[in-house]
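Teaching assistant's notes for section 4

Start the section by putting this record on the projector. Ask students to predict, before seeing the second block, whether LCP family protein will look compact or extended. Collect guesses on the board.
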Amino acid sequence: MSAESTPDPGIPGETSTTSPRRRAAKGRRRKPPTTRRRALSVTAWTAAGIVVLGGTGAGYLYFKLNGNLKTVDINQALGGDRPGKADNGSENILVLGSDSRSGGNKKLGGGTDDGSARSDTAMIVHVYAGHKKASVVSIPRDTLIDRPECTDAKGGTHPAAHGVMFNESYSTGGAACAVRTVESLTGVRMDHYLEVDFSGFQKLIDELGGVQVTTTKAIHDPDSHLNLDPGTHTLTGQQALGLVRTRHGVGDGSDLGRIQLQQAFVKALVNQVKHVGLFTNPKKLYDLADTATGAVTTDSDLGSVNSLISFAGGLKGISASHMNMVTMPVRYDPTNPNRVVIEKSKAEQVWTALKNDKPIPRTAVEGTATGKAKGVVSS
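Reveal the predicted structure now:
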C-alpha cells in the first residue's frame, strides 16, 4: 500500500499554517514583506532548506555555487556492509545539525575554537514513494546506545563503544560514523546525508526574511539568548537558532522538549518556503542559493548543484501538512534522568514501517517519554 493511499501518518497536535515575514520584535506581527535570507540547518531543516535550493530552478552562477558545496564520500567510508537499498521508490535522508566549535560557529556554539563538533540535532527523513508525504524521526542526542566500530571519511578506524550518547558517534568519526550508527540502530539504509551548521542555519533564516511561529507560553532562556512572550513572532536567524537549541526554557528541560520545538519549527519553515517568491527577484534567488550551498555538507552523490536541484525537485510536493514528525521511542534512563534509552519494541515498529514504506503506527509513540513541550510553539 503506497503512502498516498494511506491515512496521514502522525501523532496528535498538527501545527497550523501561516505565511511568515520579516524580522519582528517579540510579540509583534508584521505584514508579509519581501524575503531576505536563510533557512537550512540542524536537523531536517536541511531537507527543508534544500527544497528551497531546488526551487530556485537552474544553477544560477553554477560554478560559484558548485564550489561552495562540501561533500563526504559516505559510500566509500562505509563499504558494502550496510542495509540494502529500498526498491519501492522511497528514500531515507539522515539530516544532522552540527554545532562545530570552529570558525563562524565559535560564538554560536560556545566553547573554544578547537575545531571540534557534535551532532546537536539528528533527524531521519523518510520520503514515501510518490514523494507526496514524509515521516521525520528525531533521534535524541542524549540517547544511550552501543556505537558500532566505524571508519571516518579519512580512513581512520574507531572501535565500538558501549553505553555512549548518540551524538558521540559524530564527534568521534564525523558524518560516516553517524551514518553507520544510525544504520546499525535502525536497520534502515540512509540513501543521503545532509548537514548544516549553526552559522549556516542563522544566515539562511535571515535570507528568508525570518520564520513566523506562535508561542502559547513564554520562553525565556538566557543560555540560548531567547526571550519570547506568548504570541506570534517572526523570528530572526538568531532567535530561530535560540528556539531550536533551547532546552531549559520549555517542558521538563530535557533534549526531548527541545526536539518538540524543533519539529514545530520545521513545519513553520516548510510553510515559509512555500511562500517565497524567488523567481520574481533574481538577486534574492542567488543570495539564498549562495548561502544555502555554503551552509551544507552532503554525501558525494548530492555533491553538485545539479544533483541538489534534481533531489530537491522531488521533494517540493511535500507540504507541512503531509509531514509526520515523531521522536524515536525512548524512556528516561532510571539511573540518570539526563539520559534516555531506546524503547526497543516500539522503536522496531518505527523502523519496520520505514523499511516497508508504510505510515508509522501511533502505537509506536504512545506512552513514551515526550519532554512535555508539545504545543508550546505552532507554525
